[in-house]
């Protein structure tokens, strides 16, 4: 475990200390230890799920890991280019223990301490990020585990409703056969890319790979 002096402030970092850390997180590349990162993703209104975003060996890399995971899950707001962590810290200023938990959101096993944990409070629950330092991965269930980046099944219904509404505005009325195909689409690699690649689509038929051929 890192000595306390290796951190920019006492742990877990407060909102003010965390924002200052983000401004110069690149300076902490030499702060070597074992870290686990977690991101809370929204499943439905006011309901979130904490996902493992990956393990890292330096404090600076934990920030990059969280932002890479947020990008992969399409959680970042294009209007907020500073990234997920900065967005959370800038928005959540109440310093409550719910918004800034002092315990890890997942059971990590063995000696550990929370470096930073932040999540939206009511009425916007469902999005958050957390960095946990652990003594070792040797006995941890997260040893060798890949980031939990699978799209949750709850997002499929929202993706279908979104594409039908946005598509009607952009492409006009949806043909019946394509509407049936959209509602039946179950592949995350297809429906999960509708919003992400929206600017690339030129018409209804391009939303379903088989129809675009």
Helix content: 25-40%
Q: Helical segment tally?
A: 7
Any idea what the shape is? elongated
Can you summarize the main beta sheet? 4 strands, antiparallel
Mean model confidence by pLDDT: 92
The number of strands is 4
Keywords:
213 residues; alpha+beta; 4-stranded antiparallel sheet; 7 helices; 4 strands; elongated
Overall description:
This protein has 213 residues and is α+β, with helices and mostly antiparallel strands. It folds into two domains: 4-134, no CATH class; 154-212. The chain contains seven helices and four strands; from the N terminus they run αββααββαααα. A hairpin with a 2-residue loop joins strand 1 and strand 2 (47-58). The longest helix has 18 residues, at 154-171. The model has no long low-confidence stretch (mean pLDDT 92).
Q: Would you spell out the secondary-structure blueprint of this structure?
A:
Elements: H1 15-23, E1 32-44, E2 47-58, H2 59-72, H3 84-91, E3 112-119, E4 128-134, H4 154-171, H5 176-184, H6 188-191, H7 209-212
Antiparallel strand pairs: 1-2, 1-4, 3-4
